[in-house]
TrEMBL record:
Organism field: Terrabacter aerolatus
Gene3D superfamilies assigned: Dimeric alpha+beta barrel
Protein name: YCII-related domain-containing protein
Family in the record: Belongs to the YciI family.
Pfam family, one: YCII
Location of the YCII-related domain: 1-99
Domain of life: Bacteria
Length: 146
C-alpha cells in the first residue's frame, strides 16, 4: 500500500524559507531509516505558491491563476511517498517524523493512501492496466535519467 505524507505550507515556506542545517540533517536521517526499511519511495519539497499556478475549468476553457495563493494553511510545502503493508504501519512511520521538522502549531501532516490499479474495479480494463504499467515503467526510466 502506498501512502503520501503531505507536508503543509507555512508562512515561512511561502516566503521561501527552506529549513535549517539541523532540519535537513534530521529529515535526511529519517528518510535513510525509511530507505533501509524498504518503505521510502520518494520525497520532495515544493517551491512557494508564488512560483506556481492554478488552472480552473470555466466555461469550456482553462483559466490560469498565478500564485501566490492566500490561505497558507491549505497549501502544500512538500510530500513523501511510502510503500508499507498497512495504514497502521504508515501511521507508525509518520509518528517518527523529525520533531525539528514538525509543522507549525495549527498545521498538521496529512496521510493519504494512493490508489492502486485494483482499487478501480472493472473500469480499468486489462488493456488500460497494461498501458498504465507501461507508462509507469517509462516514467521510472525517465526519472532514472534525471
Amino acid at each position: 500500500m502506498r501512502f503520501m505524507i503531505i507536508v503543509p505550507a507555512s508562512p515561512g515556506t511561502e516566503q521561501g524559507q527552506t529549513g535549517t542545517q539541523q532540519q535537513f540533517a534530521d529529515m535526511q536521517a529519517y528518510n535513510e531509516q525509511m530507505l533501509k526499511a524498504g518503505v521510502f519511495v520518494d520525497g520532495q519539497g515544493l517551491h512557494p505558491s508564488a512560483r506556481g499556478a492554478r488552472l480552473t475549468w470555466e466555461d469550456g476553457d482553462w483559466v490560469v491563476t498565478d500564485g501566490p495563493f492566500a490561505e497558507a494553511k491549505e497549501l502544500v510545502a512538500g510530500f513523501t511517498i511510502i510503500d508499507v503493508s498497512s495504514r497502521a504501519e504508515a501511521i507508525e512511520w509518520l509518528r517518527r517524523w523529525p520533531t525539528s521538522c514538525a509543522p507549525e502549531p495549527g498545521l498538521a501532516l496529512e496521510l493519504r493512501q494512493v490508489f492502486a490499479p485494483e482499487d478501480f474495479g472493472d473500469g480499468l480494463t486489462p488493456e488500460l492496466r497494461e498501458r498504465e504499467e507501461q507508462m509507469r515503467a517509462e516514467a521510472a526510466r525517465n526519472a532514472a535519467r534525471g
